[in-house]
């Protein structure tokens, strides 16, 4: 498929307009010239008639030596006739043309032998002078004058074409410069394009490219940070697994081997969980256009909360924590159900992890200020005010959290925030019931 060309498109329209406008200009020139020629020749007829009116005209044809200069001019086609008031012929420059006798002074038009003639009549007391000219003479003069415009118009057409080509090449040069600049860059060079010499019409395009480069730079930086953080976080558990495996290989005591086996299994579980969370975070932070599935449909938050509590009820019993779901009013959102399940799973897992045995964790689906919302409330130790903003950072864990549970990864709330941001929701931290514990609230945008 042939690629469209702005230059070819503009040239087609401009030259097409010129091709259409050229004949119109010639036609307008012809009509204007014809009107001017008629005015001039009508005045010439009047002057000739007045000149003949002052002459002493004898009856019959005038000898060639006595005719007026214009009386038999082949180019002008003038015909002069003089008659007595009763119509008797005194003089005719071309007797073979039967011009009709008129006693009314001024300009008139006659059709003689199928041809239109313009006639000017001068009435005197003793004679009537008529000067006539065929209309074809006027048309020929107008055509000749209008035809003289064709060559300048053709030259102008060629000149405009050349100037248009030069102007388009110069106007599109910033695009070629920008394309060459982008083509010469390496994959890691995402500096913005220079805007100083960019024409106003191309400025939105170049600004959009710069915005895309900035977003790509931010995405690449985020990816590099993520890979670096993931490699750092995975290095510790993998090293621990290697040490435990070495201990297992060297140990000959069955009890010691059993203990190392349990520690190795726990380490593998922690590493697998960390990898799952890394994948969840990667999917949650990816754009919808990145090729990952993101299917939006109507999701009932109440059903989502009940299903999540059912999934984690076994873990809650093992930890001796009262886990329950509460639905307070309808709440439906347009969202990816699987990602909202991941969001709730991380919130519930965090609450169970940091709530002591005998504690309570409630999952509440409840509209707040007319908008659907999810709330996960526990009566654990909560989060210090100074740490409330940092807990959403990737891999961040406060010293208190590390002291309570060393197996955490610091990714749970980061995943929650990434999924919430993707759905246009906001995540906020609040105090639990009676000021004890922590409430994590996810408020979705109001919709129909």
Molecular structure report:
By secondary structure, the protein is of the alpha+beta class. About 50% of the residues lie in helices and about 15% in strands. It has 9 helices and 12 strands. The chain has a 5-stranded antiparallel beta sheet. It has a 5-stranded mixed beta sheet with strand order 7-9-10-12-11. A hairpin with a 6-residue loop joins strand 11 (about 425-430) and strand 12 (about 440-445). The chain is rod-shaped. The two termini are about 45 Å apart. Mean pLDDT is about 80; it is low at about 60-75 and about 290-295.
Outline the fold blueprint.
Layout: H1 6-53, E1 79-83, E2 89-92, E3 106-112, E4 115-123, E5 128-134, H2 135-147, H3 150-184, H4 203-250, H5 254-285, E6 297-300, H6 301-318, E7 322-327, E8 332-335, H7 337-354, E9 360-365, E10 373-378, H8 399-404, H9 412-422, E11 426-431, E12 438-443
Parallel strand pairs: 7-9
Antiparallel strand pairs: 1-2, 1-5, 3-4, 4-5, 6-8, 9-10, 10-12, 11-12
